C-alpha cells in the first residue's frame, strides 16, 4: 500500500484533521520538531492578525505509541484557536438570525475560490467555499509533511526551503551547504541569507499593505542525500518530477513550478543545459553540474533536487477589485475578509513539506517495507547494487 493522506477541516472550524496511511512501524517521531515546522509556517512579514491568534501544534491521536509509529494509520489534529471567535458563524445547526450573524459572503473575491465554488456546489453563502479553500489547510499539510521529513531524515535525506524573490525583489542565491541553509532559513523571517534583500522585501510588503494591495513571489526547495532512481520513466504517473509538480501547484496560490534551470532551459542550447556524466571510485557516477535539478526521465539522478514554485499575489485585497453581488447580480466591489498581504515566506515552508511528502512516498515505493528495519535493509541492498554496477 502506498503512502497517502487526507485532510479535513475549515479555517474557522474547531480543528484541522489529517490521517496518514502507509507509514512503516518503528519510526521514532520528534513531536517538538513537527511543532517547530508548524511554527515556521506561521512566521514571515506581511501576514495578517490571524497568525497572532494561532500557536499551531499537532496532536497525534492514533498510530503512535511511546514515540514510535506502529504501522497503523497516524491521525493528528491542529487546533484553530480562532474558532472560539467564530462559533456562531460556524455553527453547524441552522443559525437563527440575519445574514449578518452568519457573516454571509455574497460578493466573490477575484482570485479566490469563492465564485467557482459557489456555482459548482450550488452554495449561496460563499463562506461555505472559502472556509475550506483557505490556506489554513496548509497547516495540516505541513504537519503531515513534517512526519515525511522525519522519515527521510532517518535515511540521511535533508530538506531545505528559502525565498528566491518577492514581487521582483530578488535575494542573492544562498550558495550554502544544506545544513547551513537550513540553519539560516530557520532564523530569518523571509528565509534568505541576504539581509539587504530582506530589508527591501519588508519595506515593499509594508508599502503594499498600506496601499491595500497584495504581492506574491518565488520560493525554492532543495533536497539532498537522495539515492539515484526514485520515481520511474516507465509510466507517466510514476515520473517523480510530475508528481512533485502536482503537489507544488496544489498549494494555495501556487501557479507554476520549475526544476533546476527550469524555463531558462528553453532559451539555451543543449550543450549549456545537460549535465555531463563523471565517474570516480569514491563518488561513483555523478554530474559536473545540476541544471536538471536532480531529475532525468522522471527519476532522481542522486544530485540535489531543486524545485521552485511561484505564488501569485494574495487574492483578498483591502482595496477590493470589481466583482458582482451573487444575489442582485449588480456590480459591487469584492468582499473583504481579514487577510495576509504577503505569505511568501510561509509558502516556502509549505513547499518544503509538500516536496518532502512526495519524496517520502517515492522512497517507500522503492524501498517499502512494513518496518524501518526492513526499509533500511532494502536500501542497503540497493545501494550495494548501485555501487557494484
Ligand atoms: C500560506 C498561505 C497564506 C495565504 N493567505 C491568504 C490570505 O490571507 N488571503 C487570501 O485571500 N488568500 C490567501 N492565500 C491564497 C489563497 O488561499 C488561494 O489563492 C485560494 O485558495 C485560491 O486558490 P488558487 O490561488 O490556488 O487558485 C494564502 C496562501 C498561502 C499558501
Ligand atoms: C489561517 C491561515 O491563513 C489564512 C489563509 C487565508 C486564505 O484565504 O487562504 C485567509 C486568512 O484567513 P483569516 O481570515 O482567518 O485570517 C489567512 O489567515 C494560516 O495560514 O494558518
TrEMBL record:
* Family annotation (HAMAP family): Chorismate_synth
Work out whether the entry's keyword set contains Hydrolase. Answer: no
Residues binding FMN are 132-134, 252-253, 297, 312-316, 338
Q: What does this protein do?
A: This reaction introduces a second double bond into the aromatic ring system.
As for family, the record states: Belongs to the chorismate synthase family.
Q: Does the keyword NADP apply?
A: yes
* Class of the enzyme per the UniProt entry, highest EC level: lyase
Q: What is the lineage of its organism?
A: Bacteria, Bacillati, Bacillota, Bacilli, Bacillales
Kindly list the cofactors needed: FMNH2
Assembly with partners or alone: Homotetramer.
Quote a single Gene Ontology cellular component term: cytosol
GO BP, one annotated term? amino acid biosynthetic process
From which organism does this entry originate? Cohnella faecalis
The pathway this protein participates in, as annotated, is: Metabolic intermediate biosynthesis; chorismate biosynthesis; chorismate from D-erythrose 4-phosphate and phosphoenolpyruvate: step 7/7
SUPFAM superfamilies named among the record's database cross-references: Chorismate synthase, AroC
Question: What note does UniProt attach to the cofactor annotation?
Answer: Reduced FMN (FMNH(2)).
- Give the catalytic activity: 5-O-(1-carboxyvinyl)-3-phosphoshikimate = chorismate + phosphate
Task: Give residues annotated as binding NADP(+).
Answer: 41, 47
**A GO MF term:** FMN binding
Q: What is its EC number?
A: 4.2.3.5
Source organism's superkingdom? Answer: Bacteria
Q: Which UniProt keywords apply?
A: Amino-acid biosynthesis, Aromatic amino acid biosynthesis, FAD, Flavoprotein, FMN, Lyase, NADP
- The name under which this protein is listed is Chorismate synthase
Amino acid at each position: 500500500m502506498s503512502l497517502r493522506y487526507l485532510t479535513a477541516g475549515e479555517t474557522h472550524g474547531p480543528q484541522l484533521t489529517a490521517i496518514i496511511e502507509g507509514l512503516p512501524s518503528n519510526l521514532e517521531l520528534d513531536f517538538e520538531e513537527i511543532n517547530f515546522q508548524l511554527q515556521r509556517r506561521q512566521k514571515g512579514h506581511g501576514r495578517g492578525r490571524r497568525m497572532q491568534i494561532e500557536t499551531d501544534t499537532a496532536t497525534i491521536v492514533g498510530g503512535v505509541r511511546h514515540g514510535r509509529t506502529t504501522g497503523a494509520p497516524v491521525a493528528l489534529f491542529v487546533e484553530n484557536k480562532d474558532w472560539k471567535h467564530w462559533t456562531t458563524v460556524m455553527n453547524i445547526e441552522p443559525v437563527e438570525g440575519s445574514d449578518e450573524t452568519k457573516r454571509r459572503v455574497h460578493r466573490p473575491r477575484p482570485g479566490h475560490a469563492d465564485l467557482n465554488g459557489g456555482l459548482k456546489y450550488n452554495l449561496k453563502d460563499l463562506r461555505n467555499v472559502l472556509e475550506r479553500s483557505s490556506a489554513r489547510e496548509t497547516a495540516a499539510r505541513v504537519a503531515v509533511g513534517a512526519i515525511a521529513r522525519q522519515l527521510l531524515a532517518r535515511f540521511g535525506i535533508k530538506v531545505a526551503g528559502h525565498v528566491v524573490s518577492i514581487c521582483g525583489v530578488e535575494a542573492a542565491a544562498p550558495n550554502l551547504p544544506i545544513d547551513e541553509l537550513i540553519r539560516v532559513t530557520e532564523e530569518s523571517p523571509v528565509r534568505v541569507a541576504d539581509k539587504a534583500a530582506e530589508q527591501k522585501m519588508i519595506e515593499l510588503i509594508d508599502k503594499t499593505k498600506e496601499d491595500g494591495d497584495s504581492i506574491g513571489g518565488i520560493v525554492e526547495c532543495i533536497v539532498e542525500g537522495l539515492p539515484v532512481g526514485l520515481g520511474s520513466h516507465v509510466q507517466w504517473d510514476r515520473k517523480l518530477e510530475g508528481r512533485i509538480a502536482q503537489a507544488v501547484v496544489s498549494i494555495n496560490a501556487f501557479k507554476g513550478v520549475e526544476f533546476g534551470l527550469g524555463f531558462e532551459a528553453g532559451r539555451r542550447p543543449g550543450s549549456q543545459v545537460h549535465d555531463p556524466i563523471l565517474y570516480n571510485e569514491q563518488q561513483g557516477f555523478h554530474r559536473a553540474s545540476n541544471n536538471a535539478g536532480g531529475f532525468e526521465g522522471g527519476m532522481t539522478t542522486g544530485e540535489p533536487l531543486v524545485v521552485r514554485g511561484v505564488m501569485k499575489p494574495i487574492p483578498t485585497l483591502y482595496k477590493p477589485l470589481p466583482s458582482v453581488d451573487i444575489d442582485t447580480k449588480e456590480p459591487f466591489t469584492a468582499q473583504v475578509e481579514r487577510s495576509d498581504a504577503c505569505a511568501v515566506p510561509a509558502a516556502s515552508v509549505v513547499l518544503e513539506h509538500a516536496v518532502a511528502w512526495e519524496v517520502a512516498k517515492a522512497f517507500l515505493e522503492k524501498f517499502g517495507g512494513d518496518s524501518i528495519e526492513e526499509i533500511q535493509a532494502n536500501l542497503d541492498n540497493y545501494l550495494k547494487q548501485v555501487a557494484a554496477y
